[in-house]
Specification:
globular, 36% helix, 13 helices, FAD/NAD(P)-binding domain, 20 strands, alpha+beta, binds flavin-adenine dinucleotide
């Protein structure tokens, strides 16, 4: 088998890259180890930055999102039992976020790719990368019980944190920087009406809580727990009691409860792999970086990585020049680190660190007090949450 760009992984990064390259007339093949049903049913992120919404619309896959997604103009920050609205729409001159689940984005992208005759091989096994530092790299894999080899000009490692691509960058070159947080998120999907018109991020003495939504009927809420806790310790009653205590306010607002459809605990880390390229291998999305979900940046970063890649690949096939591709890592990492900074800021400001001294706890509450009082701080939080413009990176590079 042969193609121009071999893509490992049909997550948001791999699918969007394939879609964008198709629009530029560049053929790709996507290799995905899971089934179509599995990737289309996995619950993950839900907050799309303005830039991601614009990208989905501009590339022709935003129609269902615009119909079914929920536009939010702000968020609410809660501490000491009082809520403070952050009017992001006003603070960012008219921008907003869209609440539309990641698996719905996946469905829209898979449908668009297949409709356009794109090649996605699901349920592949034993994917391995070869000759990534040579002119013609190869991906070997098993599909339909037989061995295959895909020759290509470039390999895109869009295979998430646990995929095989990142390890192809030699140890002598690859630097992995990470921070593990002493917090876990117990997430639930619950069948209840929408609790609040906007997301609520609450810092409470018992720990952080996030009230969010997926659809008018299904809600996604989280509470901070010990990352090593066992989900079996959390009965549905215990979850609702704890969640309600963390978001209650003095004005009598109550959180609607209902049947819990799904619950699990995830740990939190920040992780960056530098560089994000080696030879003819390029990493995008979670394969190269992980952010704690407090800043809602994971999916959005995957989308900006692939826009940088698409421009570099397009330039290569149009002019023969690899200059932009050679700078992919430098350009993408600048944005990645800004998202890491913001995600770390939100995580440390909003979670209850039970190792903190009373002094440190008061400093944390004072930070929330400052952020919700100062227009400058609110503007900074808003522009980061809504998503910094990709043009910032573009202006400092030869990008077009
Ligand atoms: C449990 C969980 C909850 C999350 N919640 C949020 C959230 O609330 N907000 C937020 O912003 N972000 C969240 N994230 C992060 C966000 O979902 C990711 O940042 C996003 O999915 C990144 O997209 P990606 O395409 O880079 O990677 P992925 O979505 O991980 O896609 C990688 C794909 O590669 C495939 N793959 C892996 N190995 C191989 C292989 N060997 N061969 C072939 N295919 C392979 C995988 O099956 C997968 O389909 C969450 C992540 C997780 C794990």
């Amino acid at each position: 088998m042969q193609t121009k760009v071999g893509i490992i992984g049909a997550g948001p990064a791999g699918l969007m890259l394939s879609h964008l390259l198709h629009l530029a007339g560049i053929e790709t093949v996507i290799l995905e180890k899971r089934s179509r049903e599995d990737i289309e049913g996995t619950i993950r992120a839900g907050v799309l930055e303005q830039g991601t919404v614009d990208l989905l619309n501009a590339s022709g896959v935003g129609e269902r999102m615009m119909r079914e997604g929920l536009t939010h103009h702000g968020i609410e920050l809660q501490f000491n039992g009082v809520r403070h609205r952050v009017n992001m729409h006003e603070l960012t001159e008219g921008k907003s976020i869209m609440v539309y689940p990641q698996h719905e984005v996946i469905k829209d992208l898979v449908a668009a790719r297949l409709k356009a005759g794109g090649e996605i091989l699901f349920n592949v096994d034993n994917v391995s990368l070869h000759d990534v530092d040579k002119q013609s790299p190869k991906i070997r894999f098993q599909y339909d019980d037989s061995d295959h080899e895909l020759s290509c000009d470039f390999i895109m490692g869009c295979d998430g944190f646990h995929g095989p691509s990142r390890k192809e960058i030699p140890d002598s070159i690859r630097k992995e920087k990470q921070q593990i947080y002493p917090f876990g998120w117990l997430g639930i999907l619950a069948e209840t009406p929408i609790a609040n018109p906007e997301l609520i991020y609450s810092n409470h003495d018992r720990g952080f809580a996030l009230i969010s939504t997926r659809t008018p009927e299904i809600q996604r809420h989280y509470i901070q727990v010990n990352p090593n806790d066992d989900i079996n310790n959390w009965s549905d009653d215990r979850i609702w009691t704890d969640l309600k205590a963390r978001v209650e306010t003095s004005d009598g607002w109550t959180l609607p409860d209902g049947p819990i459809l799904q619950k699990n605990i995830v740990s939190m880390r920040s992780f960056v792999c530098e560089p994000m390229q080696y030879g003819r291998l390029f990493l995008a999305g979670d394969a190269a970086h992980i952010v704690p979900p407090t800043g809602a940046k994971g999916l959005n970063l995957a989308m900006t990585d692939v826009q940088v890649l698409q421009r570099g690949i397009e330039r290569f096939y149009q002019t023969g020049s690899k200059d932009l591709l050679d700078r992919y890592s430098e350009i993408a990492l600048r944005r990645v680190w800004k998202a890491q900074r913001f995600s770390n800021f939100m995580t440390t400001m909003l979670h209850r660190n039970f190792n903190h001294s009373p002094f440190e706890r008061s400093i944390q509450l004072s930070e929330l007090d400052y952020v919700t009082s100062s227009r400058a701080a609110l503007t900074s939080l808003s522009e980061n949450y809504i998503g910094l413009p990709l043009e910032w990176e573009a202006e400092r590079t030869v990008f077009s």
